[in-house]
Design brief:
189 residues, mainly beta, 2 helices, globular
């Protein structure tokens, strides 16, 4: 399995010195015609950085993210808005995209490649198109819950941007650092 490790430095968050993202493809099998290839991504809080959420059990992780909107900024690259519905549906809106991707989310115990210990992750499977495209790659993405509760990530109760049921974005999402309130004000104009 091919593995790429990227190190991101979050300039806007002193609490987050690094986030490690591992990307791998399931190249061990030959996909059948029309079957999407799955890319696996694990996002972890950097080693040595502690967070109270690391002690949460599965039920607490579910309680903490269900019915909430999260805004994540990846400096000079993009903003990402995730809404985790109470029905285990997740909606994703990215900078530069006119599409709201829809998937399901679950909390799973996983041992990522290159790690000795298992951890809880919030996992989604997204194909960034409004309707599934046969044969297009999909991403199985697992995020360590701590990454949603650091200073670099803003969150709010409810589906702030009314993403539920949408297939197109409610507007344009900048790549510059922004806030939930700023985006709400921009959309109201």
């Amino acid at each position: 399995m091919r593995k790429i490790t990227l190190l991101l430095t979050a300039l806007a968050a002193p609490l987050l010195s690094s986030c490690i993202i591992q990307v791998g493809n399931n190249l061990n099998t030959t996909p059948k015609f029309g079957t999407p290839r799955t890319n696996y991504t694990y996002e972890n809080l950097g080693d040595g950085i502690d967070s109270p959420s690391k002690a949460w059990d599965k039920a607490e992780v579910q309680r903490q993210i269900s019915g909430k909107t999260f805004l994540r900024n990846f400096p000079k690259r993009q903003n990402e808005i995730l809404y985790f519905g109470t029905d285990n549906t997740v909606y994703q809106w990215l900078s530069g995209s006119q599409i709201v991707a829809k998937s399901t989310w679950s909390v799973e115990t996983i041992t990522p490649m290159g790690h000795a210990n298992t951890s809880l992750y919030i996992c989604t499977t997204l194909q960034n198109t409004a309707t599934p495209v046969p044969g297009a790659a999909i991403t199985r993405r697992c995020i360590e819950p701590a990454l949603l509760f650091i200073a670099a990530t803003e969150h709010a109760k409810s589906d702030v941007f009314a993403l539920t049921g949408r297939i197109t974005s409610p507007g344009s999402l900048t790549i510059e650092k922004t806030s939930i309130d700023s985006i709400k004000n921009q959309l109201a104009q």
